[in-house]
Write a structure and sequence with these properties.
Layout (H helix, E strand, L loop, with lengths): L5 H18 L7 H17 L6 E6 L2 E4 L2 E2 L5 H13 L1 E6 L5 H12 L5 H10 L5 E5 L8 H6 L4 H20 L7 H16 L1 H7 L8 H19 L4 H13 L9 H4 L7 H8 L1 H11 L5 H8 L21 H15 L11 H11 L6 H11 L7 E4 L4 E6 L9 E6 L5 E9 L9 E4 L15
Antiparallel strand pairs: 1-2, 1-4, 2-3, 4-5, 6-7, 6-10, 7-8, 8-9
Helix pairs in contact: 1-2, 1-3, 1-4, 5-7, 7-8, 7-10, 8-10, 8-11, 9-10, 10-11, 10-16, 11-15, 14-15, 15-16, 16-17, 17-18
This protein binds fe (ii) ion (2 copies).
Amino acid sequence: MTNVTLSQAQRVVLLLSGAVKGVGLYPESHPAITHPLQELAGIFDALLADRHELRFGIIDGVLFFEQHLFFTPSAAVEELTELLVRKGVESATVIPGLQVEELRHFVTLLSRRQLQGAALAETLLRERIVHIALLLADRDRLRDDEEAEEDGLNPQATYRQALTVVGGIFREIEVGRIPNSDKLRAVVDQMAVLTIKDPATLLGLAMIKDYDNYTFYHSVNVGVLAMALGSALGFRGEELQELGMAGFLHDVGKTRVEKTILNKPGRLSSDEYEEMKLHSENGARIIGEMEGIGPRVAQAVLGHHIRFDRTGYPPWARALPFDRFCDIIAVADCYDAITTLRVYKSALNPKAAVELLRGLAGWHLDGALVEKFAEMMGRYPVGTLVRLDTNEIAVVWRPDPHGGEQPTVKIIMDAVGGMLEPPLVRDLAAGAAGGEIVAVVDPLLKLIDVSKYLE
Ligand SMILES: [Fe+2]
Ligand SMILES: [Fe+2]
């Protein structure tokens, strides 16, 4: 591996800090923006020809790029240092494959004043910036449990943090590193507290889907759903946390599957399917190497595609004694997959999805668990789009606490089809304001993104 020279490091700092400033001053296609970005991408590319990654950031208040520390501040050094500190970024890792367009997008997001800390990291993920990952400084990482509990946990922040952590783990594995499990443990810790305290909000958040970052959102949603089901079954403490980890990591073996297969819009060929099927055993192997994660998590990942009737894959593992973790993950996995729109299939609404799970009970899935899941989701699960007898359209926001047909909803469209902004919250059980659910509505027909009402 060739060393990064000091002049290369200085050039990177100069170009990067100039580009961040430039995007605010010039149109995107202006040479003042495109030229430095092309040069920067070229330097990264050349340096990454014989290494896995490049890292820059702040260490004890001093800017570094790889092994070079910038003690003597130039204007560019000062500006970049100030920017990273303000954004709550401890370091950024660049991996091979970064194209100019992605770099431009990264720089643009970095230059947005309001975007910092966890929100910045999450936006990068959402916007498919996958060749640069941020490590956040301490103040922006998860606070420890006691502190967090004192001022109340925030489900939205915890959900976002879970996305960032899961995204980071996947990326580290992709570049050949074995990730540390500390951050994962911290986030499942918080999630476990919230699952017991406020499951309805988390179930709403688990309805957020992201087409472009399917794997990350799917992983987090499966973790959230599995923990909610586990909690409904009476799991607490370490057991609930381990179940969450198994959910978050159940598809981690997909990091070993060719991207072309993973993102293929149509049906897989039989060879491709065989490769895809290796993800459960590969995932279990990866988890086995991660410190601080118990064997029960690896076991659940290994068996998450073994069906209740002991068919499924990998075939060699069918006779192993899997515990309930496996069956719980399978239910959560199935539910999230069928409520998500993919290129090759449409999404089911939550109510229809619960019905479909019932059809799989007893052979594909554990029937008792499916019933418990259905009970937990209620007659109209959170995220279902419904029509009321007043002809208003609403999104189910909180389940009916008594398991009945009167959840709390957000009315998003009035009786004559006008959108309500902001939506009106109405507890249907309260009766006075009226409104009884008469039908489930397909969000696609109304072109409504249900998830935006659930955050
Ligand atoms: Fe899977
Ligand atoms: Fe999955």
